[in-house]
Design goal:
mainly alpha, MetI-like fold, 0% strand
Length: 270
């Protein structure tokens, strides 16, 4: 009897192995972890294991948040913070990307600006707030300027770092096809550096939120930072935690918007 050949054996489906370590969202686990922490927190507060003076129960924080929303103060404080954050972050991002491209493209700009950026970047920007108040006054200029200054330098570093990591073969290929410097920057360098720029935007958005709260803690009548400062001075910990919750939701919203931008702009990576 003849031995079975490869053609006689039944076909077996082979599992796909080219996923590239793509993460799969497990929403049930994410929600379950969050609910479990809330349950532990609420139980500890109700049993007295966690003092309400130190950390109020989630139910009390929810009530304070509802009162803040119902009174209209939530939008008053949030709109003030968003206006400052939006102006400073957008201006800092635009200027940072432009400067980063100048450093990445031109040797003269790299030689003159890169050391300056590296020297100023490590300085804690919150420490410069008194100086910004002296320069621009106690009004909106000092707050917007602080956020602009704080987001500018990380954006510059992320941008020209992303340009430096673009494959040089692609640039040489563009030059061989007769593309000029502007066309290479627009068609090769910008798409190649975009993942680094968007990652930098996630970081600078968090930096912007930190800086706006710090600025509003010192010199503001409206804003989430001013609300937290007022709640802390009155020992209203439920309102204080509610204000922190607003900041957390704001950070999540900004992070989600940047994530949507990544999915739209980086479709070519899929």
């Amino acid at each position: 009897m003849d031995a079975p050949t490869d053609h006689d054996r039944p076909l077996r489906e082979v599992a796909f192995r080219g996923g590239g370590f793509r993460h799969q969202p497990i929403r049930a686990l994410s929600i379950g972890t969050f609910l479990a922490l809330l349950f532990i927190w609420e139980t500890g507060s109700r049993t007295g294991f966690i003092s309400n003076l130190v950390l109020p129960a989630p139910s009390e924080v929810g009530t304070a948040f509802y009162d803040l929303w119902k009174s209209g103060n939530l939008w008053d404080h949030l709109s003030a913070s968003l206006a400052r954050l939006g102006a400073g972050w957008v201006l800092g991002t635009i200027l940072g990307i432009a400067t980063g491209f100048a450093i990445g493209l031109f040797s003269v700009m790299r030689a003159s600006l890169a050391p300056l950026v590296a020297a100023i970047f490590p300085i804690p920007k919150i420490a410069l707030l008194p100086l910004f108040i002296i320069w621009f006054g106690i009004g909106e200029g000092s707050k917007v300027g602080l956020i602009l200054f704080g987001t500018f330098f990380p954006t510059v570093i992320a941008t020209y770092g992303g340009i430096d990591n673009v494959d040089r073969t692609l640039i040489r290929m563009g030059q061989s096809f007769g593309l000029n410097r502007w066309e290479i920057a627009r068609k090769i360098l910008f798409p190649g550096a975009l993942p680094a720029i968007l990652s930098g935007m996630r970081i600078t958005a968090a930096i912007g939120i930190i800086l706006i709260v710090a600025a509003e803690l010192i010199a503001a009548e409206k804003g989430i930072g001013a609300f937290i400062q007022m709640a802390g001075s009155l020992f209203a910990t439920d309102q204080l935690v509610a204000g922190v919750l607003v900041l957390s939701v704001l950070g999540l919203a900004v992070n989600a918007l940047i994530g949507l931008a990544e999915k739209h702009l980086l479709r070519w990576r899929a």
